[in-house]
Amino acid sequence: MLDRLLDASIVFSFDRTGYRRHAKGFAAGDLDVDLTGRTCLVTGASSGLGIEIARGLAERGASVHMLCRDVGKGEAVRDAIDGAHAWKLVVAPIDLSDFESIRRYVQTHAPSTIDVLVHNAGVLPDARTSTADGLELTAATNLVGPFLLTHLLWPRLRPDARVIHVSSGGMYSQKLDVPTLFDPPEPFDGVAAYARTKRAQVVLTELLHERSTRRVSSMHPGWADTPGVQTSLPRFRRVTKAILRTAAEGADTALWLAASPAASSPEGRFYFDRAPRSTHLSRRTHERPEDRAQLWRTLCERIGADPDTAFR
Ligand SMILES: NC(=O)c1ccc[n+]([C@@H]2O[C@H](COP(=O)([O-])OP(=O)(O)OC[C@H]3O[C@@H](n4cnc5c(N)ncnc54)[C@H](OP(=O)(O)O)[C@@H]3O)[C@@H](O)[C@H]2O)c1
Hints:
Helices cover 44% and strands 14% of the residues. It contains 13 helices and eight strands. The protein has helices spanning 2-8, 11-14, 16-23, 48-58, 71-81, 99-108, 137-153, 178-182, 190-211, 227-232, 234-240, 247-259, 289-303; strands at 39-43, 63-68, 88-93, 114-119, 157-166, 215-219, 270-272, 275-277. It has an eight-stranded mixed beta sheet, sandwiched between helices. Strand 7 (270-272) and strand 8 (275-277) form a beta hairpin. The radius of gyration is 18 Å and the shape is globular. NADP nicotinamide-adenine-dinucleotide phosphate binds at residues 43-44, 46-50, 69-70, 73, 94-97, 120-123, 141, 166, 168, 220-221, 223-224, 226-229, 250. The site of NADP nicotinamide-adenine-dinucleotide phosphate has 30 residues, from helix 4 and helix 10.
């Protein structure tokens, strides 16, 4: 009963006390796993949660490709977390807001077989910007670019590969609305635009699960103290600083979904603290089937994929 009340409070669920309370229910040994021979891709591995996901996979023996828009920053992070160069960490360039960069990454740097793809990179800009492909930056970086990357890498994903979308609890505030997702209203509200892309990631995960046998999932990290939160949400961080999770605590569920045998059948669901969670807190945010279909069609159109045959 107390757990239910604390979870319903949001604050004492998303914060560090929530992590520690939920962690008491984690099965011992879930992450005692040898990932030698596995190839894992982590986007946004140059900061915050991405560093912790990359570290967690590499220290368990995986070959980890750190996909970073700033290779110098990625290499500095790699050297900081693995000074002895004992792990298999490769830094590769990609800008997820730019289709050409994504295609170049796949043609030039992507491994031929992939076991894990973690879509962790994300942005929350405070002003509206258009990308070279004519997309609003938040939608491009958090949603369309990652979708193009998944599409291009799909043939290289092993049949039991895991694909993980790092979403946000902020998505609970938004209902899927495809026109607004791609063309946010003025005045631009960065937090709302971000939350819409995070809602869309969760729906997209379900749509991918309906179409394929690959192990797709989405998750949210709660509230973790990262450079992203410090820069994009300075006021929120000032107020919540004392209760924020560590980056490793925020990254824990993504790592668990990527690595643990206990997470081998995620079935397109949305996870938080190693457990599947409801994707809605209110009936107000329930989307209609036609909204889901529109999201799929629009995403496929944007990346030039056939909506009927893609990802089959
Ligand atoms: N921290 C939290 O409490 C929290 C809560 C909910 C959801 N999340 C989600 O968790 C994920 C990680 O967030 P974080 O808090 O760790 O943020 P962060 O510290 O800002 O890290 C974001 C990462 O994404 C990369 N990135 C941004 N734009 C990119 C682009 N166009 N192409 C390639 N990479 C790009 C950044 O690269 P640079 O290093 O070059 O900037 C950085 O590595 C995000 O998807 C975020 O939405 C975080």
